[in-house]
Structures are given as structure tokens and as C-alpha cells.
Amino acid sequence: ESFDGTEGAEAAGAAGPAGEVRSVAGLPGGVVPWVLSGKDEGALRAQAARLREFVEARPELAPDEVAWSLVSTRAALERCAVVVGTGREELMEGLSRVVAGEPAGNVVSGRRGTPARPVFVFPGQGAQWVGMGVELAGVFPVFREALEECGRALSGFV
């Protein structure tokens, strides 16, 4: 049985080189994001319903494995939603809210649009943010790489 073209094996963890199973680690605090998209609101809700049904029928699937599959094997379409949670129940409840078109504290939804303009982040500004950039760079490799790239680009000016 498949989940809208995604084989069950993919939802359990996308196969990498030589059959190696990859997964995505949760965010700090054990938070896991499930990223969904559809061509319109109806398609997004239908996608959430299919995912909920698929995961509900497979209790052995770990939330981080589902997250990896969603971000590595699915297209990024016009309408999107991200359900975040620290466990299966919270994620499944968020999916139910997407299906119903209801707001939820652990769901962010919107429309893909024109890319946002660049933003400069000055981590460590203010007493409440001391060490924030170092912590982010230590936890998120993409942030670290972007920070290093900015450092190289601005090194001649600072």
C-alpha cells in the first residue's frame, strides 16, 4: 500500500547510498516537523488525511522517520503546512486540525510565494540573546554554513 505515491519503505526512512536508511533528527527539545504541501487548500487537506491514515495504520513508524520522508521525497507545492510536535499523538492531532482546516498551536500553514528578501541576523545582540548564534550554529548545520558564508562575504568590511 502506498501513501500518495510514497512507498511505505520511504515513509519509514528514505534509503540513501547502498541502502543506508536516513532519518532526520528532531529539533531541540525533541520537536519533530511534518511538512506537507498541496496544489490548493483541498489538496493540502487531502494530503494531511492520507498521511494521517497511513501513519495511523503503521504504529511502528517513528515520527522522525516520517519527517525525513516528507522533506526528502515530496514535492513542495503552492499550499503548505508544517505540523510540529514532540510525539506521535501531538503530530497526529495537528494533522487532524489541518484536515479540518482549523487553526492549531502546533500548525503553521500558508502559501508559497516569491522568495523573501535577504535578512541579516545579528546573533548575540542583547543580554537575552548571548550565545544564541553559537547555539544555533551548533545545532543546525545549515545555519552554521550560512553564518560561515556570511562571515567570508563580509570579512573585507569588518
Largest beta sheet, briefly?
3 strands, antiparallel
The shape is: elongated
How many β strands by DSSP? 5
Q: Give the DSSP E fraction (strand runs of 2 or more residues).
A: 5-15%
Mean pLDDT: 79
Distance N to C terminus? 57 Å
What's the number of helices? 6
Order of helices and strands: EEHEHHEHEHH
Rg on CA atoms, Å: 18 Å
For the biggest β-sheet, the strand order reads: 3-4-5
Uncertain segments are 1-23
Estimated structural class? alpha+beta
Helix content: 40-55%
Walkthrough of the structure:
The chain is an alpha+beta fold. It has six helices and five strands. The protein has helices at 8-11, 41-56, 63-73, 88-100, 132-139, 141-154, and strands at 2-3, 6-7, 32-38, 79-85, 107-111. The chain has a three-stranded antiparallel β-sheet with strand order 3-4-5. A two-stranded antiparallel ribbon has the order 1-2. Strand 1 and strand 2 form a beta hairpin. Helix 5 (132-139) packs across helix 6 (141-154). The protein is elongated. 19% of the residues are buried. Residues 1-23 have low confidence and may be disordered.
Give a nutshell description of this structure.
42% of the residues lie in helices and 15% in strands.
Keywords:
42% helix, 158 residues
Q: How are the elements arranged and paired?
A:
Blueprint: E1 2-3, E2 6-7, H1 8-11, E3 32-38, H2 41-56, H3 63-73, E4 79-85, H4 88-100, E5 107-111, H5 132-139, H6 141-154
Helix pairs in contact: 2-4, 5-6
